[in-house]
Structures are given as structure tokens and as C-alpha cells.
Amino acid sequence: MFRSSSSARRVTAAAVLVAGFAAIVPSALPAGAGTAAAVQPSATVPPGFSAYFKAQCQYVTTAPNDPIVFPGQVGVSHSHDFGGNLTINASSTPSQLRRGASNCDDPGDRSAYWMPTLYKNGVAINPDRVDAYYTNGAKLGTIQSFPAGLRMISGDRLATTAQGSNVTSYGCIIGGQAAMQSVSVPTCPAGSALLLRVHFPDCWNGTQSDSADHKSHLARSLGDGSCPAGYPVMVPELVLAYRYPFLGGSGVTLASGNQYSAHADFMNGWDTTVFTEHVNRCVNGGIVCVLPPTPRAAIGNTSALEHLKAISFPVSITYPNAYAPISVDWTTRDGWAKSGTDFVAASGTLTFAPGQSTGTITVVVIDDKIKEADEGFSVVITGNAGVIVVKPTGNGIIVNDD
């Protein structure tokens, strides 16, 4: 957990401890929408901390693009490290993100997150984890969902001095917990990792999903938990945290400039129904919620005698979804064994019922009655919404027994 972005704030709404808290499973989602993961309450919120839910994502790519500041212009921006949505590119829009795939642990989150690339003595170091915390920011009032097309930037890429810990801060991950928060890069102890956090504004003007500077449609809440004039809508305070697998220290710079030029971009790709459920249950409910891991799919290798006329590839799911079906698409790929001669080319979708962890893809083998060497081909799987494929290719050997 982490403290609110302003030390002057405190959580005045009572933290709620709920026994047997109901999992978030929307009864109906629009076609193509991600299925919500089960959100479990993990704890009440101690005084001085914010209620939140977290989307745990992974690094995706590094590129000199910024689809918010320079939409459609490839290579114009300084370098950024992107996390979350796997389809992100210089021309991405929120609606495109919602149709794309993501590596975040909540299937409903297909948002894109990015920060300037970080360097140690001129060598780029990519984050090994991207965490997005959605918190109440200790505001006094009901938090509303983000608008569907929201784009926003927090932090100043031109800053040469500390921006304040309510905007950007560094720290260390020690024993799984954030510590040693500082406006400058600390030297973390052995066995830990460097952390960079950017706090986004949490009051919205209620009309615009973007603005000319990508900032002025939002403002930061005040120390008394209210929103400033002109920004009447309280929204979650997004705290984006990048973890880097080194200890910080001297020689750290960013693609945008020195260590103080940290900033972050967010493009909303959340399924609106899922996001609203999370905001209402967790943020407005005054509790910290955790999400189960996203299901991971892997296809295994296999073999079969030719005369059996079929070969079956095992597919396994780690962390199966207990509440909704998930699926992977699959297709055959020629190897030494050729489609039409040695096996029948095919493709399809393998669906797993709620809680199901194993499945099988069967391909027809052509028994040609010819003595020949054993031959192989592959089946490749790709994940649909709510599934991360960790082993996409299964190799199959047709064992000649003529």
C-alpha cells in the first residue's frame, strides 16, 4: 500500500471490512468486452492510506512514439517504455485499445501506460513491472469512473528540479514493499529494486476527454479532500509505478532529460462496466482490493503413430477463470510434415469452461501407407480476451509405423 499524494490528507470515510465480499462479475458485458476478474477485498484501509484497486501489468515495448502528444507520427517523440496494451503504436486511440490485447492481470484493462525510457550511465533499463493503482486519493465524496476516451499526462518533461512527491517520486521495493520515497533517485539496498511513481490529477472538468496540452481538462484535488472550482467531478487518482531491476544511485537519467523530468501518459482502454464496478466496490467502498492472476495458456508437445490418423495437442491453463469461460484460437503450421500430404490443415477455437484447466486440440493425420522418416508440424495458439499465452507453439511428431 502507499500513502495519499498529499500528507495533509487523511481518509475520513470509514474503512470497511467485508466478510464474504462478493466477487465482481458483471452480469452482462457488451460484445467483445473483457470479463472482469474476481476482485477480493484484502484489507481495511489504515488512516493515512487510500482505498484502491490495482492493475498489475508488464512492460510491452520501447519506442520513440507518443500517441497522445504526437498522434500518428512515428519516431517523433523521445523514447518511451510502454506497458499494458500489446497493440500500442503511434496511432493508437482509446477505442482501438479496447479492441486490442493486454498483458494486465485484469482482462477488463486494455489501457496503455507509458513513461520516458530510464537510463543508467547511458544504458537503457526497461521496467520489469508496471503497476497502476486506482485510488480515492483521500477525497471527500463519491468517485466517478473515467470517461471512455480519456487521455491524460502528468508531470513536466522539461522539469530540471524536483516536481514534488505529489507528482513524481522515486523509491525502493524492499521485501515487496515500497520504501525510501524521495523526489530524487535513491541508492537502494542490495536485493531491492528502484521504483518510479507518477501521480495523476484526480478532478475532472466533466466535459472533455482530452485538451490541447493533455493536462488542463483535469486538476489535482485540494488538501481538504475537495476538488477546485471548474473541476467538479471526482475521479480515481491513478498512481503509475514502474519497477526497475537495479538499485538506482548516481548516473540515472530519463529520455526526456534529467531524473526530475519524469512524467507519464495514460490512454484509457478499460471496459467501462468493469472499471465502474471496481471503482464502486473498492474505491468508494473504502477497501483495498486485489485481483487474481490472469489465466496463462500453454500448449504442449506431442507425438502419435501415423496409423491412428489423429494427433492431440494438450493445452493447459494456469490460474483458470472461476467465473467465466475463456478461449484460445489455434491454427496448424507446416514443418517437415506438410498439410494435405501428412495432415489436414485446420484452425479453430478451444474454449475452457469456468474453472477448467486442461483441454485438447486434435488434428487429423493422413495415413499414406508409405515408409518414411518421422515428420513434425506445429499448432500455434493465440489468446483471446482475458488470457495470456506463455507457450504459443506445440510441436507434434507423426511417428511412421508403416
Q: How is this structure best described in words?
A:
By secondary structure, the chain is mainly β. The chain has two helices and 28 strands. The chain has an eight-stranded mixed beta sheet with strand order 1-19-2-8-16-12-10-11, covered by helices on one side. A five-stranded antiparallel beta sheet has the order 3-4-5-18-9, with no helix packed on it. A five-stranded mixed beta sheet has the order 21-28-26-23-24, with no helix packed on it. A hairpin with a 2-residue loop joins strand 6 and strand 7. It is elongated and about 80 Å long.
List the helices and strands and how they pair.
Layout: E1 40-44, E2 52-57, E3 59-63, E4 80-84, H1 94-99, E5 112-116, E6 118-120, E7 123-125, E8 129-135, E9 151-155, E10 168-174, E11 177-182, E12 193-199, E13 203-204, E14 218-219, E15 233-234, E16 237-244, E17 252-254, E18 263-267, H2 272-283, E19 287-290, E20 296-299, E21 302-305, E22 310-318, E23 326-333, E24 347-352, E25 358-364, E26 375-383, E27 388-391, E28 393-399
Parallel strand pairs: 2-19, 20-27, 21-28
Antiparallel strand pairs: 1-19, 2-8, 3-4, 4-5, 5-18, 6-7, 6-17, 8-16, 9-18, 10-11, 10-12, 12-16, 13-14, 13-15, 20-22, 22-25, 23-24, 23-26, 26-28
